[in-house]
Amino acid sequence: MKKSQKGFLQMFSAKGSFRHGIHPEENKKQTEHKAIRRIPFPKEMVLPLAQHRGAPAKPVVRKGQDVVRGELVAEAGGYVSAPIHAPVTGTVTAVDKLVPMPDGSKSAAITIRTWPSASQEVMYSKPIDTDALSPDELVQAVQDAGVVGLGGAAFPTHVKMKAPQGKQITTLVGNGCECEPFLTCDHRIMLEYAENMVRGARLVMKTTGATRTIIGVEDNKMDAVLRIREVLASLPGDNSDITCEAVKTQYPQGAEKMLIKSLLDLEVPSGGIPADIGCAVFNVGTLAQVGELVPESRGLIERIVTVSGPGVNRPGNYLVPLGTPLPELLAHAQAIDEPGMVILGGPMMGSTIATTDIACTKGITGVLVFPPESLPSPDERDEMPCIGCRACVEACPMLLNPSTLGRLAQNDRYEEMADEYHMWDCFECGCCANVCPSNIPLTQLIRVAKGGHRQRNQPVQK
Amino acid sequence: MSGHPLSMKIRTSPHLKKTLTVREIMASVVVALLPVCAWSIWLFGLSALALLITTTLSCIATEALFNRLNGKPALARESSVVITGLLLGLTLPPGFALWMAALAGFVSVALGKVLFGGLGQNPFNPALVGRAFAQASFPVAMTTWTPGFLAERFSSFIPSTFAAPFMTPVDASGWIAAQVDGWSGATPLKAIGHTGDFASASDLMFGTVSGSSGETAGLLILLCGAWLVWKGVMGWKIPAAVMLGTVLTSLPFWLIDPVLYPSPVFMLFSGGLMLAAVFMATDMVGTPLTEKGVWIFGLLIGFLTVMIRLFGSLPEGAMYAVLIGNACAPLIDKFTQSKPFGYQKPVKEGGKA
After folding, report:
1. Is the model's pLDDT at B346 over the cut of 50?
2. What are chain A's domains?
């Protein structure tokens, strides 16, 4: 790959970092040294059919049917979709129960009552020789495994495993930054499942055509960097095409555009995707699951979730069967009974939930519980006028002008925001709102403006 | 455990907030100004104290009045108006009549801030609006200086301090002459071109020269500014750019003729430049937002200050330079919008244009 022609400004940016960004308190100490532990199987499992991006899965079981742990219960509803597998051995109690989702919507779900005496051994497992599979067969195998982006996006992984039409992928980037405060599940995965991760990277390299893999890890997780390098050195064969590099601990380092910039000093063009500059970015947890499941022809039935926050008495990283009702997980982690706030994902980009009456799905990276008396931000938004302090301008990793965007948004001037101030380049990382001393909800203003602009200008113009 | 729909808060991300608030920013600036005020009182005595109290109270009272008229709580939730009052007091001559100072305070807040919509809306630094008003209205009083460290500065006021409104200005020269010999009344800046006798750099840095009550101690102001930068309340770029602009503009003149033109160091530490660079030009509202814009803004102020000083009819140019800079800020912003991430030329062939 051709090294980039360095622009004048790029001379100032040190390798391993991007411009701007913020340094929120990490809060990772609570969980980063806790090994992953399995939680007991709950009595009843809830499997929403729309737990990934794209089309919902289609049930292939009936009510009353007995299923075995690992068995397919819903097939992919299209190309951009993923199948769902039974997380427990038990009896299907419903296939179309409407259940609440984290975003407040409802989704049809399959519910399974667990057999209390079942061994919960994964019966559906058929080792295959991945070397013998063609790239297309491999992509199909990943879809069959039901793997979706486990970094929180929940986008079906197999879709990203083939270079888009007319583009060529040369570099696979493993995203082990985990820049969100509190979360440590990727950290633990890199420490405990590095072999699976490397195996997964090999498979993805084969389908995308990438000739090398760089795993980027923030330098607050040097133990993970060393562990991955150790594994790479110990594995048979030549592994020099897979490397692990430390990047600066800086939020939002884990955003794919930022990570590519830090590792390769390349910028994904505005409105483009990483494939435009020959890159594909995969979360390390996703790679580990691909590496673990595909060679065994198994389905994704559990994931690792960080449970943390001041409202949790036993914070840690838990191996959670997908479909576990959230209250079961919280009870196991000894969370307080009446939380003031529960965040799914990290505190910067995660979302709050109105009720814990939801199920753990493939896209949940973490659950953060805060008691009413110590919410992560002050209770009332004591909003003041913008004083032009430039804090947001110096925080924005996309080099936008959030202050002006906020002012324009408050006046419904969405077209100006899009045409002159590059609103659509914002990926809502939250840095601007985090640093604003006037407590202006800049990120939310931009979010609303995007919605308004989309509505006014259908089809969307970027 | 079950869901508690009523007790759980729903918010939009980000859920983490940095704790620095506007209130803390303003309070920090007030704290940073206090040593400068203290120095000014130590130097000029009771009159300087009375002046600072008058301008500050006048500014607070003006804001309270307009807040009441607008049906808002009289006292603002942050202390930016105190900054305006203190800065105004610091830029006036120590013997300035208090009634004039009170009027200047009213104009600062009424014309400089409230008229535009209050905090965050004022295009100009309110304190400088007040000073410009005083300069235009009371040119004689604005250029009547008192030497520092007078023997009686803590036992009596400078006579002009208590001049009655609209009466013949009180002459303080007799009071001064009784305490010090051979007082010319000229500030170091005024001396340029008259005597060719430039005050020494150390006198300027430590403020043992005559001048406006709080503009003299360059080093102290710099130190207070450094504390604000260290606290993360203030950016270092604007003060740096103003100083750089001053040095860059005055250096060629000084190199051509060091007898006729003052040295860059003199330019930096004389008059109100240091106060303007550290506390006035950095008033966040009237400054550009963009990264390049901040540098252009600062350099422009430095350049204008030197130009006004050397070729204008006014002895001091920093104030007008900042005001002109404020006026240019929106324009600078418009032309210096930074190129967002991802707008560089595509590196690879076949990439999106």
Report:
1. no
2. 21-34+128-296 (3.40.50.11540), 379-462 (1.10.1060.10)
